[in-house]
Automatic annotation (TrEMBL):
GO terms for biological process: regulation of mRNA processing; spliceosomal complex assembly. InterPro entries: Kinase-like_dom_sf, Prot_kinase_dom, SRPK. This is non-specific serine/threonine protein kinase. Residues 97-438 form the Protein kinase domain. It catalyses: L-seryl-[protein] + ATP = O-phospho-L-seryl-[protein] + ADP + H(+); L-threonyl-[protein] + ATP = O-phospho-L-threonyl-[protein] + ADP + H(+).
């Protein structure tokens, strides 16, 4: 199978990349041979007897972001500075990992490129926020470790971990994962394109590798990801390609990243993106993953990606990941958001979300209403007719996607296999890998 970017990130797409910082360089290549991952209580990075010396990074000569301009994680609606460990470029953790540059940020963590002074290679440090509930990621990696020697192709689409440790900041303890350094996420890549969509052929390649990862998680690891979207799909390279990341480190010496000094101890840096060339897609961010098939009976999934069974408060399992595959496909193809209810709307959110589901998918079948009749009766009558608790939005059904951006009927049929009211009627990842639209 052709790799994600070898198949479709051609010169035309690469020429469309914009809004990059100085020093952003391609860093993406197919591993020459399969690697076997095995998590142990100690670091899996190669031990050596000597250690490189830390570098002294510039203390001036960088662009300053004005105090009234929100930067990176400050843009989150629920941002609180005390939750984030104040990482500084040049800082060394564990007398081993020296931070070289910032790679990304999110609602629960920041990610940094670091040089392993002992292992003489580059790694990514994912620093979780203080008191994070996303500490499930480390137990998840411990759970799947024994499966990473499998011959299942999907294991190559799971982001690797090397080590972990804790660090104490001004406001408490933070968990740090040491992972293979990734390139740009598909969300960020799309944001940097002139086009508003990826080519259809590229999306098929992306979905194929995503479905391989999910089939591996569901069938061999017995785990549910619950957080599938483009921001958690990364382009990664073989971590032996030190020269690629050394250019990022060197760029911090010659063209330091823009930053916003917040206080004597806290600085917010702008992230650097690493653009891909060739290589495998990696599914990442397992902080919300559930170990075991379930079924589970508590809320999960980001809004508005939430599957209907979770909104109806009925047990859920692997099919919630398949629901997100369909939504991710639309996102990557530039289709207008199918479900866009505002997650800040409080109690009105589930009403708005279910109204959108009803408009797009049609009335729910009786079997779905029977999963939780008391809850369902708040929204639909006995025949599945919407009660107009909020107006149904004026949008077409899934079939209206045919022809949009030249998408064929085969794509609509693919979507109908992922977005179903009944979880039991959704195709499995293995089934979708043989879908005619993907195979065409």
């Amino acid at each position: 199978m052709r790799s994600l970017v070898r198949a479709s990130l051609n010169a035309r797409l690469r020429a469309s990349i914009i809004r990059t910082q100085p020093g952003i360089i391609p860093a993406y290549r197919i591993p020459r041979s399969p690697t076997t991952f095995q998590l142990t209580p100690s670091s899996t990075l190669d031990p050596v007897s000597t250690k490189e010396k830390p570098r002294s990074f510039p203390i001036d000569g960088f662009p300053i972001i004005e105090a009234d301009q929100p930067a990176e994680e400050e843009q989150l609606f629920d941002y609180s500075a005390y939750r984030y460990y104040p990482v500084h470029i040049g800082e060394t953790f564990q007398d081993r990992y020296q931070v070289c540059s910032k790679l990304g940020w999110g609602s629960c963590s920041t990610t940094w490129l670091a040089r392993d002074l002992k292992g003489k290679k580059y790694v990514a440090l994912k620093v979780y926020i203080h008191n994070s509930v996303f500490h499930r990621e480390l137990p998840f990696y411990e759970h799947i470790a024994t499966h990473m020697s499998s011959d299942h192709p999907g294991r190559e689409n799971i982001r690797r971990i090397h080590d972990s440790f804790t660090v104490t900041g001004p406001d408490g303890r933070h968990i740090v994962l040491v992972q293979e350094p990734g390139c740009i996420s598909l969300f960020d890549l799309k944001e940097r394109m002139h086009e508003t969509r990826f080519p259809e052929g590229m999306v098929k390649a992306i979905l194929t590798e995503l479905l391989q990862a999910l089939d591996f998680l569901h069938t061999e690891c017995k785990a549910v990801h619950t957080d599938i979207h483009s921001a958690n799909l990364l382009a990664c390279i073989n971590d032996s390609e030190n020269a690629k990341f050394k250019r990022i480190e060197d760029s911090e010496m010659t063209s330091p990243s823009a930053r916003k000094p917040v206080s004597n101890e806290r600085t917010i840096y702008l992230s650097r993106a690493v653009l891909p060339e060739e290589g495998p897609l990696r599914l990442s961010d397992f902080g919300e993953a559930r170990i075991g098939p379930g079924p589970y009976d508590y809320p999960a999934m980001p809004m508005p990606y939430r599957a209907p069974e979770i909104v109806l408060e009925v047990p859920w399992s692997y099919p919630v990941d398949i629901w997100c595959v369909g939504l991710t496909a639309c996102d990557l193809l530039g289709v207008d958001s199918l479900f866009s209810a505002d997650h800040t709307a409080g109690d009105m959110y589930e009403l708005a979300h279910l109204a959108e589901l009803t408009a797009m998918l049609g009335p729910p079948p009786a079997a779905f209403l029977a999963l939780n009749p008391e809850k369902a009766a708040q929204f639909w009558d006995e025949d599945g007719k919407w009660k107009d608790v909020v107006p149904l939005p004026e949008k077409g059904t899934l079939e209206s996607l045919e022809g949009q951006m030249d998408l064929p009927l085969a794509f609509v049929r693919f979507m109908r296999r992922t977005l179903t009211w009944m979880p039991s009627e959704r195709a499995t990842a293995k089934d979708l890998l043989e879908d005619p639209w993907l195979k065409d």
